Prior knowledge:
- The protein has three domains: 6-98, Rossmann fold; 125-187, ATP-grasp fold, A domain (Dna Ligase, domain 1); 189-315, 2-Layer Sandwich (D-amino Acid Aminotransferase, Chain A, domain 1), CATH 3.30.470.
- 34% of the residues lie in helices and 22% in strands.
- It is an alpha/beta fold.
- The model has no long low-confidence stretch (mean pLDDT 93).
- Strands 3-2-1-4-5 form a five-stranded parallel β-sheet, with helices on both faces. A four-stranded antiparallel β-sheet has the order 6-9-7-8, with helices on both faces. A four-stranded antiparallel β-sheet has the order 11-10-14-15, sandwiched between helices.
- Strand 14 and strand 15 (282-288) form a beta hairpin.
- The longest helix is centred in the first third of the chain and has 13 residues, at 14-26.
Amino acid sequence: MPGMPKVLVVGAGGREHAIVRALLRTSAELPELHVAPGNPGIAEDAELHAVAVEDVPGLVDLARRLAVDLVVVGPEVPLVAGLVDALREARIPAFGPTAAAARLEGSKAFAKEVMAAAGVPTAGYETVTTVEAGMAAITGYPVVLKYDGLAAGKGVVVAEDEAAARATLVDMLEEGQFGDDAVVVEEFLRGEEVSLLALCDGERAVPLAPAQDYKRIFEGDEGPNTGGMGSYSPVVGLDAERVAEISAIVHQPILDELARRGTPFTGVLYAGLMVDPESGAVHVIEYNARFGDPETQAVLPRLRGDLLALLAAAAGGPDA
């Protein structure tokens, strides 16, 4: 990127502000930053553009008019909608997975199928499309019930008994709160939840520092899951060596499997993990296809490398 590089960050939240701040703090070449649509806080650090994250043609047109060197996509919605595909078709470098690779987040059933094919440890599960099939798939309580599609971090319910499970399945499959037609019924795992994000170029995964976040509302984690109630990093007991070991188990096999299928994953592969406090065994709860929110706000301030160079290299693929 000769001269002052131009970067467009897509998104409007704290995650995107953390990305902007990290780009300004770590980049050897101070970038000219643009954000769409952004928020008043981000406006202090970058130029804002009133283009919605769902407006794929509008974002491509904006990137073309600005002549940006790189687009960094924050939220999951434009990734699943194919923004990266459209940008690459317009020959605009983009950091993030294609729509095919972003199905890891867009469909929990698909993610489970890929994990099984890749040999990644995860909870036992069954995908169902009716309430009665869902009830029949439950072997004990508590049980985890997940919307198959995107639900803004709120599509997971831990049902403690039969009544709660049935009510949740009715809400998911018959009332269509999120418009999904499938549910993943999953074994409940106990342990410590950890988020481990990795920058990926389609073949290689470079893990960032681990983080832990707070998902449930109310004191004592008594309420339902939310999009995130805060996060912290570092995580006690997870040093660099252990992080590398975990990444080899939960990131690399997924990259290998998606590359084998012809849909290589570039961008951030976020692994939501359950770690057994006694044995140290790791199971994947879910994958996200982007920087996590709120984990990004805790992890990126700790980054010492050049974030712009890392994102540009990942966007360029394994040969960059």
